[in-house]
Design goal:
The chain is α/β, with parallel strands linked by helices. It has helices spanning 61-73, 90-98, 108-113, 115-119, 126-139, 150-183, 199-205, 209-214, 216-226, 233-245, 253-285, 288-297, 299-308, 318-324, 349-365, 367-377, 383-404, 419-448, 460-464, and strands at residues 9-10, 27-32, 37-44, 49-56, 78-82, 102-105, 143-144, 329-330, 342-343.
Length: 465
């Protein structure tokens, strides 16, 4: 390896003329993106870096764009190559696109894996990352970047609003469950704080079992009104009585204030989350593809797919969409050792999370999916096997969405082999019918025969005599 392989020159001191003779047929400009300190590798069309340039973003970004324009004037047709990580490179990508410069993306995983191939050392730093990007761009085809549509950006903005709300609500729910388990464990037997909402004004007014026990009638009335008369009076009575007889630790004033703090945040942020979900549903209903996806997996999941990975119509095959979601399988085997299959988990984890929830809803509402899941997970009672069965449903669902986006109707029988289920159900029906026929044949004979006398019960003395 030559000395100063990774030495860089400031963009203000960079001279283009000395390297023009090395860039005869096209060139690659590979940019390693950071928050402020960018490093770019000026390379040949084959990916061999000839000079490393550093610049500070955004102070020197226009000077770097001037360098790219100079390469265009020399008719070298520069191709800017970057990694699709974060948002720090969005401004540079947009400016290059506005100037008519082609922008291409390289997977960060490929950059990481090729680190030791570049110089025999597994280390990675900004100049080396720029060289690796140039090397990969010259070695294999790259994916062209294009700006997101306005609809996709609006969906992404709503999803970005929703994500912190859902995370904060889950955090406060965890705190609330922990406090109730310590101070009022009986409440969880009657109310699910994650699924129901009638407890919010109830605990907001009376935070803790002591406050409820001191105001039994008023607390019962608030709980009745908050549930809109959906909670049975017997259950409300049991809730109020449990506050008096609870085995939990008595609460201090500070702990009551902490409980009220969590309830206030859950109530306010749940209302904000509902408002965002309504906006997402309204936006989804205006788009043909998203509305078709929402009919299968729900509006939030459909918006997550469109906002994170794009329209399923942009993918050539169902497996390509499955791969973009990170649901394609990987294996590590060697010799006699055969590794287990697992999903790659590439791409946005938010899409897999929403698709996981959609698969769980499908398990609860569809008999065919439930039958297949139980049959798949019955091989072993271990939790990983059951989780793999849910992931298998996710993978089938992802492939189905590719067809649904193209106008086909969602048909669950095309995803699961129901022949064995039909044969089993038919055999059960045949067995039931044959048993009924046999019963009918036996009935006349049983009526004609004389009734058998029941054996008399013998006492213990008679049995031992």
């Amino acid at each position: 390896m030559k000395k100063r392989t990774y030495s860089t020159v400031d963009v203000e001191q960079f001279e283009l003329l000395p390297i023009l003779q090395l860039l005869t047929v096209g060139c690659i400009v590979a940019v390693d993106v950071a928050k402020t300190k960018f490093v770019a590798a000026i390379a040949t069309a084959a990916g061999q870096a000839v000079r490393l340039v550093r610049f500070e973003h955004p102070r020197q970004t226009l000077l770097f764009l001037g360098l790219i324009e100079a390469l265009c004037k020399e008719k070298l047709e520069p191709r800017v190559v970057m990694e699709p990580t974060g948002t720090y490179g969005d401004a540079l990508r947009y400016q290059c696109h506005q100037r008519g410069v082609a922008v291409h993306m390289v997977s960060p995983k490929h950059t990481h894996d090729i680190a030791e191939v570049i110089d025999g050392v597994p280390s990675m730093h900004d100049p080396k990352a720029a060289r690796a990007l140039a090397f990969l761009a010259g070695m294999r085809p790259t994916k062209a970047w294009k700006p997101d549509s306005e609809a996709k950006r609006n969906v992404r903005a709503l999803l970005d609003q929703r994500a912190p709300l859902a995370k904060t609500i889950a955090l406060h729910h965890g705190h609330l469950e922990g406090m109730l388990a310590r101070h009022w464990p009986e409440l969880g037997l009657f109310i699910d704080v994650r699924e129901q909402r009638s407890w919010m004004p109830f605990l907001l007014k009376y935070p803790g079992p002591c406050a409820v026990a001191a105001n039994r009638e008023a607390a019962a009335e608030i709980l009745h009104n908050a549930s809109r008369a959906r909670l049975a009076p017997q259950r409300i009575t049991k809730i109020v009585d449990s506050a008096r007889t609870t085995v939990g630790v008595p609460m201090t004033e500070g702990e009551q204030a902490r409980l009220r703090f969590s309830v206030v945040h859950i109530a306010s942020e749940t209302a904000e989350l509902d408002a965002v979900d309504k906006k997402i549903a309204a936006l989804v209903s205006k788009d043909e593809v998203m509305s078709r996806l929402a009919a299968v997996v729900g509006p939030v999941c459909a918006a997550s797919i469109m906002g994170q990975i794009g329209s399923p119509r942009d993918f050539e095959t169902p497996r390509a969409l499955e791969k973009a979601m990170g649901l394609n399988l990987k294996e590590r085997s060697s010799g006699k050792k055969k590794g287990q299959l697992s999903i790659t988990k590439r791409g946005a984890p938010e899409v897999r999370q929403m698709l996981y929830l959609a698969a769980l809803r499908l398990l609860q509402t569809n008999e065919i999916v439930e039958w297949w899941y139980l049959r798949r997970s019955s091989h072993s009672g271990r939790q990983p096997v059951k989780l793999k069965a849910v992931v298998a449903v996710m993978r089938k669902l992802a492939r189905a969405l590719w067809h649904v986006a193209r106008g086909e109707d969602f048909d669950i029988t095309k995803l699961f082999d129901v022949r064995q289920r039909n044969i089993k159900s038919l055999s059960n029906e045949d067995n039931a019918a044959s048993r009924a026929e046999e019963q009918k044949k036996r009935l006349p004979f049983m009526h004609r025969s004389a009734p058998q006398e029941q054996p008399k019960k013998r006492s213990i003395a008679q049995q031992t005599a």
